[in-house]
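For anyone still unconvinced, we reproduce a single protein record, the chain in one-letter code, the fold tokenised, and leave readers to judge:
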Amino acid sequence: MSAPNYKQLTQTISAHLAPLHKSQPGVMKGFSDMGKAAMAAGALDAKTKELIALAVGVAARCDGCIGFHVKALVRLGATRSEVDDALGVAIYMGGGPSAMYAANAVAAYNEFSVPVAA
């Protein structure tokens, strides 16, 4: 099994969520607001919170979660070592299946870390 193309996956998911934003605006706004509140800097900074979210996404076997949180981590300047540490915790908590999704998270990190041509 090869890892998904995470750039394409996140774009596709975003496009597929658009109708829900129209048909369920309250629910989707509530979800967005909850995400903003949960990820806002507090006792933990935004990068640490994204590392936690990535680990949970890996343990939950959610490719979309992996894509969106790795994309955010790259934007926040997370190093490969920081991502790998979070993936180690995910593997510990989720066992073999998490190891398989951790491999996908590494592929996502590599994909999102490639500089975009100007």
About this structure: The chain has one domain: 6-37+45-113. The chain has a mean pLDDT of 94. Helices lie at 6-23, 25-39, 46-59, 63-75, 80-113.
